[in-house]
Write the structure tokens for this entry.
Amino acid sequence: MKGNVRVESEAHHQLKSGEYWRDLPAFESVSAQEFETHLFQQRHTVTSVAQLREVLGKVVPESFYADLAAGIANAPMALRISPHLLSLIDWSAPESDPIRLQFLPLRSGQKADHPMLQLDSLGERKDSPVPGLTHRYADKALFLPVDSCPVYCRFCTRSYAVGADTEFVGEKLKLHASLQRWENAFAYIESHPELEDIVISGGDSFNLKADHIELIGMRLLGIPHIRRLRFATKGLSVLPQKILSDHRWTDSLTRVVEQARKLHKTAVVHTHFNSPNEIVDITRRAMNVLVERGITVRCQTVLQAGVNNSARAMQLLVKRLGHVNIQPYYVYFHDMVPGVEDLRTSLGEGLSIEKHVRGVTAGFHTPAFVVDTMGGGGKRDAHSHEHYDRETGIAVFTSPSVKPGQWFLYFDPLESLAPDIQARWEIATERRAMIDDALREAGAGSGDPVACAVR
Ligand code: SF4
């Protein structure tokens, strides 16, 4: 990517408003008063092709539904999408729409997986001392109190556990809300004084009941060595109506944040927006409520082909997040999970986008571009690779503070490579040779452990 790309100075202020949902046949007579409630959104969430047909009717041709049904049969995640998100899709061109791309898999767009992809590519289950708790970094743990979300993202890293079972994955790990399971996690946290920081994720914190938000938040804040809580939710993108109309839930979250403040600790929200089109006027209104209550919100984005893999889209996303008071925190390179190869980008492409994003706004509002390494090395600054071979698409990372002495690999999508290199990836011995070369160039001695299994 060469030259200057600069998002127009006012574009990030222009947030979609009005009653745009009325363009969809099922919602044409739905008032703002009704549409802008979490109960309407939850009751009309679409979880099957038949339900989508009821919403859209003839807005899309019959071939679209057939393509979607075939895509779902070949996807790791079940279908689940809110009326809010459905209304934000440009149905005159759904094939290229950045919101459709993230949540509705079309068979015609799916690509063959890279041979090195893995379910649970981050190795979370390996670092899980009790079910639903991952303890990888010394002072931080990931707590998964629930295994459902208000939306199911095609690209979910946790497709091994999140959402309904699918043909693609088979029977998933079950992490339903359970006080007994949570107590086991709390007991582990209490017995590890090195833990200071707990991410409450899932699944999605939006799917926890108000009472459970408070129970979990207060219980964790009561542990003396816990200093920081993060409630992780994609809800602000999927269902911002909840912040405005589910007063019990928003009040519970507020009480946890206030209690943290009283104890001189912090409790914040970490959210997830990928396309600037997900940030609309009701997002701003929901964020205004959180801002007035002093609740900090940070965003973790996933870099995705067709969604945000251009300097302009990423700049606009970063600026628009800032405009509604969400701090852009991370941009993740796409995890190496199966079934979503059409969404991955190369490391080189992401590094170029990062170059165009840095400098667009203040440094503290500029996200770090990171690779969450396969096999559990944790997040690494994408620039910190020990070696990157753009020809074979292999990057090598180390993670001395998380898994000292190990080497971690990231692979560009095959489509980004020359045809002769793609052919080499088809052959197991050639794969091994290319990876060995990359490791040698990176300085790995023979026999050094490599965290990702080479097939
Ligand atoms: S909201 Fe998060 S946990 Fe839920 S499906 Fe999407 S990425 Fe996965």
